[in-house]
Amino acid sequence: MSGRLVHIGSAVVDYVYRIDALPAPGMEKTASSYAQVAGGGFNMMVAATRTGMKVVFGGQLGSGPNGDFLRAAFAAEGIETLTPPSPVMDSGNCVAMISGDAERTFVSWPGAESVLSLEMMAPVSVTQGDWVFASGYTLSYPGSRDALTDWIEALPEQTPFVFDPTPVISDIPRPVLSRVLARTTWLSCNTTEAADIAGPGDVEVLAARLLAEHCPKADGVVIRAGAKGCHVRLADGSARTIPGFKVAAVDTNGAGDTHIGAFVSALSRGVRPFEAARHANAAAALSVTRHGGSSAPTDAEIQTFLSHAAASGGRNQEAHLTA
Questions:
Q1: Name one GO molecular function term (predicted).
Q2: CA nearest 210: which of 259, 241, 220, 249?
C-alpha cells in the first residue's frame, strides 16, 4: 500500500457512562460502568490503521492530562502526531452516555483541538499517494474553521480528500461548508446530514443531488442509512445500496467512524468502491458488537466475518449498522 491517511481533525477524551436509560430532567441515574477512552477522530484513525493503512494526525492535542492520555493512545496504535501540543490548552473531552438499547448521547467540551492556525499546521505535509480526512467538528469551531478551510483548498489537486460533516453540520457556516464540499473527493454522511446539505428526498435522490449540486469534483458519495447499510453513488452515475449485516449491537458509539476509516483504507489499497463499502459495512457491524468507540476490527477479522456471511447464503444481509 502506498500513501498515508493524514487526519486533520479533532481527538478528545471520552468519559463513557453506561446507563439503562437517559434520566428525566432534574433526575439522576447511577451508571452500571464507566470508562475513560480516546475518542473523537481517534475512532476513525483506529479503523484505518487496524485495516492496514498508515495514519498520521495533523490536528492539535493539548498539553495537559487529556493531551497526555491521547498521545499514549495514539502511540499504542502506531499513529504519529505531526504537530506540537498546544502550549496553553489541554485537549477537550466528551461525556458519552450509552443507554440499554445501545444508543448514545453526548455532551462535549472543546479544547486544543478546536484551535488551528496555518502556522500550527506548517509541519503537516502531504505527499504523493496520501489521503486527507477532515470532519465537521473541526469546521464547527470558530477558532479552527478558517485555517482548515484554507488548508484544504490548497491541497494538491491529485490528493484525495474525504469529508464527514458529522451531526454538528448545522454549526458550520454555509459558505465554509460549500467551500469544503467543493474540494471533496469522497463524502461520507448519514441520511440526516445528507438532507441537511441537499434538502428533502429519498437516499437515491439525495446522493444524486449531492454530487450534482454540492460536490462537483467528487468521485462519489456514501450515505450511511442505518438498517439499510449504505448507499453509494459514483460520479459516473452508477449507484448501489450495499446491504448491512444483522448483529446483536451492544454499543453503536464510533460505528460511523469505523465505517469511514475502513472504507478509506480499502479504497487506498485499490478495492473498488462498492466492494469497499461492503468491507466498511462489515467493519461497522463488528464494531457495534463491542464496547467502546475505538472498537474497530482488523482486516483479518473483517475478512473472516465476510466469509461467514457468504457461507450463510446471505441470511445476514439485513442490518443494524451505522448512525
A1: kinase activity
A2: 220
